[in-house]
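Entry 14. Structure prediction run on the chain below.
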Amino acid sequence: MTNNTTRLDHVVLWVADPVAAAAFYQTAVGLEPLKVAAFMEGKVSFPSVRVNEETILDLAPRTFVERMRMLPGAADSAGHPVNHVCLSLPADAFDALRARLADHGVPVSDIDHGLSGARGDAARSFYFRDPDGNIFEARHYDD
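Output returned:
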C-alpha cells in the first residue's frame, strides 16, 4: 500500500482472554486472526484480528494494563472508555454477519435505519457485544 492519507490503523480492545477473543472474532464476526500462535508462545504481547487490509483490532489482555505507560493515566483505560466501534460492511456481508452472530447465540439489537456516520446515513445498522463487553455497530450504506 502506498497511499499515505489519514486513516484508522488500529483499535486496541481490552479483553480477558485474547485467544478466546480472537476465536470469537474469527468464528462469530468473520475476521482473520493474526499472531495468535505467537501470543500463545509468548513471542508477542497480544494477538489481533484484521478488519481489512488497512485496519486491525488489537486484543490486549487486561493484565497488560501495568505496561500502559505511554502517557500519564494510560493504565486507567483498562475499563471500557470507548462507547462503540463501528464496522461498515457491504449489504451481503452485513446480512451474513447478523446470521453468523445468531448462529453463535450472540444477542443483537433491532435494525436501525438512517443512522449517520462517516459516509452519510446508513441504510441499516445493528449493535452487538463481544464476550468482553465491547460494543460494536455493524452497518451498511446504499452504494
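DSSP finds three helices and nine strands in the chain.
Filed with the rest of this week's runs.
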